[in-house]
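User:
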Amino acid sequence: MKKSRVLILGGGAAGLSAASYLCDKGYRVCLVEGREHLGGGLCAPSLEGGPPVDAVPPILWGGHQEIRKLFTLLGSQQRVHFPTSLHHTFALSAGRVVALPRLWGPASVRGPATIAGFSGISMRDRMRLVNVLERLWEKDLTLPTDLDERPVTELFDLTSQSESAVRQVWTPLSRFLLGDDPSKVSAALGASSLRALLFGTRRNNAIGLLTGGMAETLIHPAEAHLRRSGAEIRLGKPATRLLTQKDQVMGVTLQGGEPFSADWYLAALGPDSLAALLPDRWLAKYASFQSLTEWDWSPRVTIRLECRGKETKPWLRLLATGTYDWAVGIGGGKKQLPTTQIWLVASGQPALLKRSDADLRELAVKDLQGLVTSCQPDHIQHHRVFRSERATPALRPGTRRLRATPQSPVANLFVAGTWTDTGLPASVESAILSGRQCAEAIGHAVRARIVHNGS
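Assistant: Predicted structure:
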């Protein structure tokens, strides 16, 4: 039997994930991307006119299992390695640098032991937190049922952490795990992320390094996988409207008026971009479509510095003070001319979008003053700033009700993206999980139709 045809709108992480899994199952796939390159916000046009360059740091949190699963499918898993020098390391006051311990043992023991052995907070804060963790594990204490309605910062109050511990450790760690300001993110997401870090596998407390960045581990391998599978890829062709009949998608009109039809449609787009394609009658009829216009967005500024001189080992610093949330440094360059590539990331700070490249570079140097010897003004050979006003959907308290399931109210239309109901923060991991969930949902729908038609 001839496999169904699936049209995917959006070639970011979610669209690439869905397309890869669908191709692996033998579906006929067409991927349409409005930009001239795949990867969405993971990459940006080269200033030198070459292929797109990575716009995100080339690291991976060990707890991101969905990303590693997709890398395995694409055959790029060998590009991920976990250097022993890459830890969740905190840059504390007075120049202190302390890493979160990586311990062996069962999760029920490892979580409290990790906190007890972490010298980044006072003994009093450690004992308070260990007591809470033990009571939660033994079910002598339960977290409030309305965590989704509260900000992450209230979790710190529940564990009676001092102001110093919150400022120097828990806020920087939350910013790294959540990719946003913890005072504006749902506590339910914060609790699940911290639980995965402290009570998940030991790998969850590790940081992976992507050789070649996202371009060589995800984007290029995914494109090669799709082309080998016979998928069609259309770049620079944004969809302008859905062609509908009653409660079914009949086709899509691409820029320039070109119509395109398939059996199933998957919109791996932002909620506002999807809303712009839907007919007014669907927006008025279905609550899940009406909620597409209720989303806010969180900005992100990333700067990449190329500095003269090579650090001996890669490093990660979670920053308690200054402008940026965290920084990572990776050695590179030729043997005769070694360099260190340093990335700094600031999320949820809209005022930074208006700062000049020179200002952002100066702020980066200031944040790393005394922490990184290679980040001196006269050592910086090149720098590049990546700004995104709408980097991720803002997962504020109470927004869980807005997160859509893969199956839309329309039988042959599915949705994917970090804004859908993955249960995860708005991250690449969430996007890739949403793509796999959509691929599985389409598979279920196809099988159900076959049974219904008696084929």
